[in-house]
Write a structure and sequence with these properties.
Order of helices and strands: HHEHHEHEHEHEHHHH
CATH architecture of the largest domain: 3-Layer(aba) Sandwich
Structural class: alpha/beta
Number of domains: 2
Subunit structure: Homodimer.
Strand order of the largest sheet: 2-1-3-4-5
Shape: globular
Pathway: Amino-sugar metabolism; N-acetylmuramate degradation
EC number: 4.2.1.126
Protein name: N-acetylmuramic acid 6-phosphate etherase
CATH superfamily of the largest domain: Glucose-6-phosphate isomerase like protein, domain 1
CATH topology of the largest domain: Rossmann fold
GO molecular function: carbohydrate derivative binding; carbon-oxygen lyase activity; ether hydrolase activity
CATH class of the largest domain: Alpha Beta
Number of strands: 5
């Protein structure tokens, strides 16, 4: 029998009678359970990532599907891939029930449309090289379930992130990531522990995928976009450390080539050629 653990009554009562300090300490106590729940799900996260990587090497994409908080977190994670790893915004795509309007305002009944998710995927020419990852704390969102069901029917890899075991959404997933964080501090408020755990797992999925795709060197974001002074400074210091150049030369090299990786490769290329000739 499917039980929504995420919507069970809070372990705390009379919240309005508590002091601010008590509320903060109680929330922190609950938040500490999230990392442990995510840790237990690592085998499933690993299984999903190891199937995503070869698909993306062949030109595949990741589609996140969600509604409300879950949808917003998917869009957030997807939007951070281009600036962090220098990848085009077309490789990790976040879709939210109700469209971009739903990022700031609820869209009535959008998550209840079981057909719309798949329609949005077909509009983006989804193929069997792609991966669809449903995100829903409850595991019962029709918008997500409908998209995942059709994706599987078309031989497309599906995964999901949920806070409940044996959910209808998990039944449509090739790899179900079940992160059981327990009841929320405010009963049913899945923007809290469930949302925190979803963000952690999304970080884990895309960061590990990007590392496997060669977008990180050592432990550095060598492909990050140089979109502000802070990032130009960070990239310059990476080049200083990597090549032993002074700061001015390193910055000029970075700005000329547009990324740390391209700058380092360009600097080393003529030297490698010269050594071969000798």
């Amino acid at each position: 029998m499917f039980v929504k653990i995420s919507e069970q009554p809070s372990l705390y009562n009379d919240l309005e009678k508590k002091s601010v300090r008590e509320i903060l300490e109680d929330i922190n106590t609950e938040d500490q359970k999230v990392a442990l729940a995510v840790q237990k799900a690592i085998p499933q996260i690993e299984k999903l990532v190891t199937q995503i990587v070869p698909r993306m090497k062949q030109g595949g994409r990741i589609f996140y599907m969600g509604a409300g908080t879950s949808g917003r977190l998917g869009v957030l994670d997807a939007s951070e891939i281009p600036p962090t790893f220098g990848m085009p915004p077309t490789l990790v795509i976040g879709l939210i029930a109700g469209g971009d309007t739903a990022l700031r305002n609820p869209v009535e009944n959008a998550e209840d449309d079981i057909h719309r998710g798949w329609e949005e995927l077909t509009e983006r020419n989804i193929t069997d090289k792609d991966t669809v990852i449903g995100i829903a704390a409850s595991g019962t969102t029709p918008y997500v379930i409908g998209a995942m069901h059709q994706a599987r029917e078309h031989g497309i890899l599906t995964g999901c992130i949920t806070s409940n075991p044996d959910s209808p959404m998990a039944a449509e997933a090739d790899v179900a990531i079940e992160m059981i964080v327990g009841p929320e501090y405010v009963t049913g408020s899945s923007r809290m522990k469930s949302g925190t755990g979803q963000k952690m797992i999304l970080n884990m999925i895309t960061t590990s995928v990007m590392i496997q795709l060669g977008r990180v060197k050592g432990n550095k974001m060598v492909n990050m976009q140089l979109s502000n002074k802070k990032l130009v400074d960070r990239g310059t210091r990476m080049i200083v450390e990597e090549l032993g150049l002074d700061y001015g030369k390193a910055k000029a090299l970075l700005l000329m080539h547009g990324s740390v990786k391209k700058a380092v490769d360009a600097y080393r290329a003529p030297r490698a050629t010269k050594e071969e000739e000798e």
